[in-house]
Structure formats: structure tokens, C-alpha cells
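Reviewer 2 asked us to include a model.

Predict the structure of this chain.
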Amino acid sequence: MKAKKQLEYKLKGVRYISSRKPIIIGDNLYVIFVYEKQASTYSSIKCFNKENFEIKWEYEQEFVINNILQTEGETLFICCMNGSLIELNKENGKKLNQFDLEISRCGHSSQMIENKIVVGGIQGNTQCTCYSLIPFKKLWEFETGGHSYTPLLVNDLVYQCTGNYIRCLNANTGALIWEDYEEESYLFNPICYKNIIIVGGNGVVNFYEASTGNFITQIKTEAGKSIYQIKEEDGNIYFGDGSGVFYACKLSIEDEELSINFLWDYESEGSIESISAIKGSHILIVNDDKKLLALDKTTGELIWKANVKAEAKTAGILVNDNQIYASVSSGYLFKFIEV
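Predicted model (C-alpha cells):
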């Protein structure tokens, strides 16, 4: 089995381009590109036809767009680093509304759950804030004391990491439920598996009891490099680190006790910051060696690799209708199929 490239797009005319993980809604493929133009930072959302990469519309603004939020209606919300939230018509890109988050700098928002999002402050802003989107309203804010990573909103709870802290907040009131301090490392982007919160750090993966914050256990990697993103499927977790090693572990819970069994690791040639994707029996990763890799989920064996011409950084992979979409730095967007 190998990957066959079906389509390639390259953004031209600007410099220092990075991108975000694509999203697909219906036949539309949406990609955020961030770049330098006229000595300033700009962002563009491009809406492609997912089948042929025809550009249907584009929306550009100065400074950084963090991420796209999908609604159940006809609109998209985009969360911007300058503290604005912009509503666009998802079919034509027309700007419908703009809201002030009252945050001078913010990171990626959480996913939208029951019409709510949570946003953490960065670059000197130390507020974690929750908003209702329709109608737009600030619900609460919490002082974190530092730079926050992407919040996780699940089961009326918010899990949020700032520096060495992980916190659990009430999603309706912002009240602190629990917090834990990791002495050895910053903590990044938490995920939830059953009643367990899992979060990566610098060479560590920590496990907490979701409702109480009780520390359960920790994985330590030999390289000790940053682990930004963790993927879970059917009790297996997958994660890569800054040294280019990608890991798989099996989680088992019996009599309320968690056990972790190491399955395999794979040494790639470039740092892995982006989130992985699963396609059938394969786990897909894109790294800073300019490669898209398909590994066997059970054994870690390399099935195929493809050149994506640029470093991944914090971009990502999307699987849709048995096709693989990858956006990377330097303005590249690809579509592959397995043959």
C-alpha cells in the first residue's frame, strides 16, 4: 500500500506561511493560512471545493486567526488572537458580525459545546473566559496567572492548562473545582478518556481523575521533549514529541484501576507538534521532516510515507470520505488517497 497524491495547492505571493488543521463541512474544505505581507502579519481563510481544490471564497484580515468554530447553522465563527470573534457566512465568506472578547491576546478556543466556547489568554493576558455565542455574551472569567493552552470543554467542565498547572473549572460558573501543579514541566492540551484527563508536557504524559484531580500516574519518555498533542481511540493513546518519536500505549481500566501498556514507538526524522489522525488500521502523522507517515496502529510498522514539501509545525491532517488532507507550512495543501 502507498499514498497517491491527487491534488496540491500552494499559496503564493506572501512569506513565512504557516497553516492550521483543515476542517470540512459538506463539500467545503476550510484552511487558515497565516503569513507576512507588507511587513505585517495577516491571516486568510480559504474555502476550497474538497474534490478539486477550486477556491470558492476567501476572507483575509490583519493579524492571526487561531481556529474555526463550526455551528449547526449557516455560519462559522473564527477566533482571532487579537481578541475578536468573527461570524462568517460559511457558503460565501461574507462577514456577518464581530464580537469583542475583551482579551488583548488569546489562544485557540475550545470546541463549541452547547453554544459555548472557552478561550485562554496568552502573551501577557492571564484570563480564561467562557462565552455564549448565540446570543453573544460573556458568561465568566477566571484568572490563570499565565499563558494558557487550548481548553477542553466536556461534561459541563473546563480543563485548562497554564504553565505548570492543570485546572478544572465549572463550565457554567467558572468556579475552580480542582487544580494540580506539575513540578517538572509545563502542561499543554488536555484530552478526556472515560473518567480520566490525559495531558502531555515536556517528556511526560500525566493522568488525573477527572472529577477530583487526583493524580493517577505518569508516563516519562527517554528524550524528555515536548508532547503537545495526544490522540485517543478505543483506549489506545498516540502521541509524538519534539525529538520525532511517536508512541502508542494501551489503557485498561479494571476495578477502577488504570494500567498502561506500552505498545510501540517509531523514530521519525523530524519534530512532531501537530495532532495525528486515524484512518482504518493506520495512524497518520505529519512531521517537521516534511513527511506524511502512515503507521500500523497495532505494530508501529511504517506502511507508507509521502513528501509534503514543508514542515508541519502545528498544522494537521484530516481524513474525510477515505481521502487524506494535509496542510503544512509554506502554504501547501495536499489531498492523498491510499492505493
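The longest strand covers residues 257-267. The radius of gyration is 20 Å. We have added this to the supplementary material.
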